[in-house]
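Journal club side-thread
Mid-discussion, someone asked how the predicted structure for our own chain would compare to the paper's figures. Pasting it here so we can look after the session.
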Amino acid sequence: MNRYVRMLACGLLLLGTVGLCVHYGTVYDDRWPHPTAEELDEDFDSYTGSEVLVFGEVQSVDGDSAVIHVLDRDDEVVADLTVQGVRGDVSPGSFIQVYGTLHADRTMDASRTVVVTPDSTSRYYKLGISLVGAMLAIGYFFRHWRIDVRRLAIVPREEDDR
């Protein structure tokens, strides 16, 4: 294949990928199946009896129930909910996500709860594991392939190249 045709094809593929990313970001909020904190704040009663996913900060814990502040994008409290059926290691100050049925008396029956409070080292752990994974992938790639600069191509390594 001609070098210019190959470069044009790569450019078109990259342009298509960027276009799909922009499209995904544009329609993401419209496709979200659960009400946002802002929507709960505006019209709480229309979501009673339905399954919702909320994120909030735990204020107090009593047995298997917890009181949480549901926060909006600006970290403003838009609702206080009493969540029944909380499972996991939940303590005041934790951030949790709760999936369950919303009730009119500002309570919620939790089907699933997940504690999302980040550990102080979790960011460095994620970055370190990502770096190790990237290095393994690059090493594996260059073990089996090489870049031919003269032809601007990636070619398989010969037995004597390894």
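Post-session note: Residues 1-31 form one domain.
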